Amino acid sequence: MQITFRCDPALIDRLERPVPARTKLPDWLRAMPATAFSQVHAADVRTVKHCPPFVDAMSHGFIIPLPCDVTVAEGRLSWDWDLPPLSVEAHPRSPLSFHVPAQVTGTPFHREDRAVVKFNSFWTIELEAGYSLFATHPVNRDDLPFRLLTGMVDADRFTDVGILFPAVWTNPDFEGTLPRGTPVAQCFPVARAPLDLVCEPFDAARQRSYENTAQALLGQPGVYRKSYRVKRPRSAGEVTPETFEVEP
């Protein structure tokens, strides 16, 4: 799957570039313990650090990074980003803009005293024909003080301008700096193909397979990782000093 990112020529050497999501896994995932004591079990249990679906979801697709430091203080967002003249007059120069609260009236995100933050994109995105871009909050990243609103764009056709990523601010007490490179959105291509949903009962072979697999999962750790999980290929030219691998 080739994904092509383009930007104003004046910015090509200045912008943070989109990167595979696995290279932007958070420090807390690496630092968290592999086991923790459970009062319910009165013993140590394996944490989600051992869970391939948890980690693979966080590693899937690519990350749109924040293009510059953004400081948050006393409810204000500010930045100091010196950009050169750009070749396109209509191109944004600010890393952030806003939607007024009225635009999310009737949704769970609406608050009359809170605008919707909009992360501007300085990259256009082009997918292969037949694919749309699914953009969502960086997976399992509740440590970020905002929550991206999920959207899907037909980015095999909508390729001339950057995609904007709206978000609500979820931590009103946050003060500090979101550093350049902070994950803003996690994106991945999805095929625009109709779904054929089939529901049917287990036959005898499926009953046996269910029982055998369930017993194996209960009897030993790592069954899914060892027998079912597909190892994810690296992206072309990917250098991943920060890559996190699921514990054995």
Features:
248 residues, alpha+beta, globular
Characterize the structure shown:
There is one protein chain. By secondary structure, this protein is of the alpha+beta class. The protein has one domain. 14% of the residues lie in helices and 26% in strands. Strands 2-5-16-11-13 form a five-stranded antiparallel beta sheet, with no helix packed on it. It has a four-stranded antiparallel beta sheet with strand order 8-9-14-12, with no helix packed on it. The protein is globular. The protein starts with a strand and ends in a 21-residue tail after the last helix.
Taking all Cα atoms into account, the compactness measure Rg is: 21 Å
The end-to-end span amounts to 29 Å
Describe the biggest sheet? 5 strands, antiparallel
Summed over residues and divided by their number, the pLDDT gives a mean of 92
Number of domains: 1
Structural class: alpha+beta
Instruction: Spell out the helices and strands N to C.
Output: EEHEEHEEEEEEEEEEEEHH
Write the layout of secondary structure elements.
Layout: E1 4-6, E2 19-20, H1 27-31, E3 35-38, E4 43-46, H2 52-59, E5 62-65, E6 70-73, E7 76-78, E8 96-99, E9 116-119, E10 124-126, E11 131-136, E12 146-148, E13 151-153, E14 165-169, E15 176-178, E16 183-191, H3 204-219, H4 223-227
Antiparallel strand pairs: 1-10, 2-5, 3-4, 5-16, 6-7, 6-15, 8-9, 9-14, 11-13, 11-16, 12-14
